[in-house]
Amino acid sequence: FKEKLDQALEETKQTKKKVAVMYLDLDNFKYINDTFGHDVGDELLNQFAQRVKECLRDEDVLSRQGGDEFTILLPAIEEEQDAIRIAENIRASFQRAWNIGRNLFKTTSSIGIAFYPAHGKKGYELMRSADTALYQAKKDGKNIYRSYLG
Length: 150
Hints:
It is a single chain. This protein is of the alpha+beta class and 150 residues long. The protein has a single domain (2-147), classed as Reverse transcriptase/Diguanylate cyclase domain (Alpha-Beta Plaits). It has helices spanning 2-15, 29-36, 38-54, 80-93, 123-139; strands at 18-26, 61-66, 69-77, 98-100, 103-105, 109-116, 145-147. Strand 4 (98-100) and strand 5 form a beta hairpin. Helix 2 packs across helix 3 (38-54). The chain is elongated. The two termini are 23 Å apart.
């Protein structure tokens, strides 16, 4: 992911387009994992990743960072609204219930978004800014997205 991010930042310097990084996780994943078991938790992560991929463009990159945290690289976007539209599509996809084994339940996702160059000129700065925005989304009530506010 970091290599692709660095590559996208290099390309953006020449094209003058924007890059967005999203940090997202499943709200209340620990509760689901503890209540339904790790097999259900693992399958939920697989289905989560699949739903997210369905909302992305071919050039976008989804990466699991660990646990229930994922990052998304949106290279070569025209404007910030493009990334916000994708975040809204991801959230909308989670309105459908999850059907795993005998379990049917709903869960949500919180999303933090950072934009190059406004929220960082280096990959690690964008990742940190998106992570900060994610925790702001969780603090603000979960099941929402937040852009980094600096």
